[in-house]
Structure prediction request, 408 residues.
Amino acid sequence: MEPQGPHRKPRSRAAEAIHRRIRGVVKALLNGTDGDSLAGLPDHIELRLRIPIHLQENDHRDSVQFADSLLAQVETLRIQGETESLGHRTGHAPCYWCQAPVCQHSQPPDSRSILVGWSATGIPIWRELASLFIENGDPQIDLLYGEHPGPAVCWLGEGELLGEILPEYLNDSLFARPVGALLAGGFPIPGQASESLCITALILESRVGRVVPRYSLNLLCAVPAPHHIDTITADHSRSIMSGWIGALRSSLHHFQEQLLVDASKGKRASLKSSRQRIVDLLIESRSQLETLRRRNDRRTKHAQQRSEDPNRPTSAALSDLLDGDESDLFEDRRESTIVLRGPQGRIHIFTSSGRHITSAVYSTDSIQSRIARSRWVPMTKTRAHALIDRVRQSTEPGSPGLSQGHAS
Ligand SMILES: [Zn+2]
Prediction:
C-alpha cells in the first residue's frame, strides 16, 4: 500500500519512462565499448535538460540541442574511460613529447602513411609504407605499385618501435606500452580506384592496476571521407582487410583469455614470454594476410597456374621436421622465426612456439646467402630439441596439430 494523505509524494510514471528511455540511449551509445573501457568510467553522469515553459510554439530546437549534448557527453565519457583503462586512445598513437593521447602528432597525415616508431623525444614518426619498402629493398613494393595491387605487410617489434626514444621520455609515461605492430598497405578504398589504404595495427600492453597485462589492438589509419575505419573493417564488408583485422582481433582476444585462465591457475606468464607470444601472433597474422592475398589472386586468371602447383611444399613440413636433425634448424634473426631446411630446397618457417607458418622452395644460392649473412643462424642443440619435442607433442592424437595458416 502506498501512503495516503497530504504528505504522499507525487509520482509520474511518464517522467520515469523518460528516464528509462534516456538510460537506454546512454547504454546503447556505450555498447560498442568493451568491459575494460567501462571500468574507467564514473558511476553516473549528470544531465542538464532545458524545457521551455511557454509552449505556444512547438519548437523542436531544444530537443535537438539536448540530444546533441547527450551524445557529446557520452562520447567524451567513453573516450575518457578508454584512455583511463587502456592507456591509449583508439586511432591515435600516444605522443610522449606532448604527454598526450591525442595531439597534432598522434594520427597519420594521409592514407599512405604508417607508424614506424617514435623519435628520440617521443614523437610518433609516420612514413609512407612504399618508402619503407624501398629503403629495405622489400620486393613487396610491387604489390603497392604493380599491375595487380594487393595487400603488402611487414611487422615491427618493440625494439624497432621504441629503439630511438630516450628513456626519460618513455620511462615514467602512463601510456600503454607499444609491443609490436603490423604495417600493411595496398587495400582498396571503395569507390576510389586510384587510391589505396595503409593501416598500422599497433598492439599495446597496459599493466596499470593489473595482475595480468592487458593487450589491446589499436588501428591507426587515415581513412578518406566518407569512409570510416569501423565500417571498412566491419565483418559485413567482406573485404580482405576486414577478414584480416577480424582474425587478428580474435587471436589477440584468445591470447588474452589464455593469459587470464593461466593466471587463475597460478601459472602467470612472464612479461618476456607474453611479449614473445605477441611477436608470434604478429607473424602469424602477417602470413594470414599473405594467405588471404593469394586466395584473392587465385580468382584472377594471372595466378591460376601457380595455385595448381602439385609440388606444394606445405604438406611436407611435419615429415621434414621429424625426419631431419637439429643441424637443419635455424633462427631467422630478422624475422624472429625458426627456419627448417628440408630436402630439395624446401624451407619451412615456424614461430618460436613451433607453429607452422608457411613453406616455400628456395634456390641453393638464396639459402646459402642467408646463412652466410648470418640472417639465419644455426639453432643450438638444446633449443632445436625442445622445438622438435613441442611439435611432436602438438601432433599427438587429441591435440590441435600443426597449423597450416589460420585463414578462414
Ligand atoms: Zn605530440
Summary: The chain is about 40% helix and 20% strand. The first strand starts at residue 113 and ends at 118. Residues 113-305 form one domain.
